[in-house]
Amino acid sequence: MAAGGRTTLEQLRTSALGCTQCALAEGRTQVVFGVGDDHADLMFVGEGPGREEDLAGEPFVGRSGKLLDRLMIEEMGVDRTECYIANVVKCRPPNNRNPAPAEIAACRPYLEAQIALIAPKVIITLGNFATQLLLDTGEGIRRLRGSAYPYEAARLVPTYHPAYVLRAGGEAMAEMRADFVRAKKLVAEGPW
Ligand code: URA
What is the pLDDT of residues 160-169, one digit of tens each? Predict the structure, then answer.
């Protein structure tokens, strides 16, 4: 425990690295805890590591990550050292399948603790899994994106997952860019 009894992000990471709370632990190469500035105003939450992330131990290092990095710089002027990037589940689901409800539930305390410790002003959720978990809704991303929502002391801006935008292109890409601009304005405005 840290001074005052508060767990630090480093302690949380150490605990996650040894986590065996769900079956994903058996197939992982590395736990992908998160990366970036521990005190960032802006946090991204994705779904879960893919093959490249599992090997690298870092979120969003594959094709989706390249798009995320590009849109971050182009629309917000920030790189991955100036924000924080995490996922709903910290271990790779086999064959890139969707994370199962029990796996999401097992990993949820890590994500919630990360958000509480980093205390970002704005959280951008990438895709349905992160958005539905943090907003506690079954509504889909197409309906939810385009607005900002309160999340604890932060504002949550839902947008598409970059893997979807890589497939869909065009309009989805423009909407994701608009969501990033919305988030950038909120970062400048907050805290509330
Ligand atoms: N997709 C995600 O949701 N997270 C990653 O880290 C990589 C791809």
Answer: 999 999 999 8
- What lies within 8 Å, CB to CB, of 38 at 6+ separation is 9, 84, 117, 118
| 70-86: pLDDT as tens digits | 999 999 999 999 999 99
Domains, the chain, with CATH or none = 3-189 (3.40.470.10)
Ligand 1 close to Cβ of residue 49 (< 6 A): yes
Question: From the CA of 3, how far away is ligand 1's center (Å)?
Answer: 33
Mutational pocket test of ligand 1: of 32, 47, 133, 160, the residue with most ligand atoms within 8 Å of the beta carbon: 47
